Amino acid sequence: MKILIINGSPKGPYSITLHTCLYIQKLFPGHTYEILHAGQKIRTYEKDMSEAITALEAADLILFSYPVYTFLAPAQLHRFIRLIKESGCDLSGKFATQITTSKHFFDVTAHRFIRDNCADLGLRYIKGLSADMEDLTKKQGQEDARKFWEYVQFCVEHDICEAPSAPISIPVPTDKPDPTSEAPSNIGSLSDLTSDPPATRTEKETKNIVIVASYQENDTAIRSMIKDFQAVCPHHTRVVRLEDFPFQGGCISCFHCAADGTCIYKDGFDRFLREEIQTADAIIYAFTIQDHSMGPRFKLYDDRQFCNGHRTVTMGMPMGYLIAGNLASEENLRTVIEARCEVGHNFLCGIANDAAGIQTMNARLIYALEHAYVQPQNFYGVGGMKIFRDLIYIMRGLMRADHKFYRQHGIYDFPQKKRGQMLLMIAVGALMNNPKLRARAGKQISEGMIAPYKKVLEQTDVQISES
User: Fold this and answer.
1) Are 94 and 123 in contact (CB under 8 A)?
2) Residue 7: is its pLDDT beyond 70?
3) What distance in Å separates the CA atoms of residue 458 and residue 460, rounded to the nearest whole number?
4) Residue 285: enclosing H or E segment and its boundaries?
5) H helices then E strands: how many in the chain?
């Protein structure tokens, strides 16, 4: 079997994920393996895809290998997938799977992204392997990798694959390539949407709303949505078009920013992010759906925000989304959007896909700004931050800025340190395990459990009567 490994890591041969693929190659030498360093050489493939197309067309099985970056695959791999689709390369009927490494922070959405794009390309998808970053160094991780590849071989031999999970995606027309690694020719220019539209403004309406948008000049749908939002929003709005920023490249996970938040690139993005975007009172993101996500350029922006490390520096800030395209069929994208807000502890004002959605999102945004409204985090936010809590505590010697932030904001909420509560539970557990004591306690246990909550209600009655 001819196996093509698409290495989506910008680190190329230094990718941790790739080494799981190399381990499999050693265990199963009976196949022919070829590696494309798509993430590291994305600039090369933007200029000439002929080598990649030849390798893709010759493969029997395509293996996507990449680290999970901010809920999805790295921007470089996003871009490579777009280039495959634009090339018109016919991959229908071939098998595909994936291997990722991460700390299991939303690896499910990353895997779904690849699976949906495999469906677009007519590939026969086999469920992939999601490994922890350290798994390959452990016997269990090695065993997992071996069993995974045995399963992949079984699926290919018996013509078994997952059912397609998404409709065919229609490529978004562009008037020029949208590289993630090179600045466009109009560097420094702002779009014609950066000023407020004619609308009634009052001196009291001083909130600053930044619209972070990704679109090509001929993308009339998203441009119209931005103007419609500006027309109804009573606050000052300004547009930052990502195509106008001179990105030198995508995040390469070099950890240069771990100590003080300074990016290794000299394009000024870290300063631009903190001074031009995160100083706003609210952020509205705007883009057209591409390949089941926000598109390579927006993903580049998302990845480069790693200069903030794992610090939720915008928590409490309202956020909203203007999205053009068939949003109704993009369940995974909706999950990513909600999860981004929950992990950041931002209030999601809405995901607007039409005029009615814009009106509703604007109403929620106004309320959130006036009342400083933000909801408690749900499973996405609580679970995601607990993964980061444990990760940063272990790596605090390297990720010093993150460690300082987590200490200051009380994110280190380790339950193992709540000794008083743990001792209480030991006592209650001993009581419940004794049939005689349990029968004697009876209703008193339930009364004891709700006693603190009854006290809150009693205090509320007193406060209401006094007011």
Assistant:
1) yes
2) yes
3) 5
4) strand 282-288
5) 16, 11
